[in-house]
Amino acid sequence: MGDNSGLILKKRLVWRLPILMAEHKIRTATELKRRLTEIGYDITSVHVARLVHDRPQRISSDLLDAFVNIFDCTANEILAVEMVKEDEGEPRGLPEQGAIEITSGKRKTGKDGSEKKLPKATRANIPKDMPLETITGPKLHALPNPYKKDK
Taking the complete model, does pTM exceed 0.70, yes or no? Predict the structure, then answer.
C-alpha cells in the first residue's frame, strides 16, 4: 500500500446551479430570470448571467430560497459539499470552475509560518518547449481595412 502521510482531505463547496438548470431544462439565463421574476424575486439580467456562468463569492439567503423554490430542491443540492484529496508535497492547483473552497477565515501559511503565495505567471515559469500561445491564446493580427486610403 502507498504512504498516506502526505494526504490531506479537504471539503469544498461546489456551485451546482448550471447542473440544476440542465436537469430542469432551463437553457438560458433569460429563462432563469423569468422564473425568478414569476416567484417575486427581482434580479438584473447581468446578475443572473454571472450566477449561471461563474461561481458566486457570496449569495443572499433570499436568492437561495428562490432557487430552492424554482428547482424544488434543498440548499445542499445547490451548494454541494465534496471531499477533495490534496498532497502536501505537490503544489496546489486552482479549483475547478464552479468550486468554492471553504476556509477558516485565517490566512493559509506554510509549515514555517510564512504566507503561501502562488507564483506569478511569467515566461520563466513556462517550460521552454511550451509555446506561449497555449497560455495567452493565439496571436491576433489586424485585418486590412478596405475603406482606408493608403497615403
Answer: no
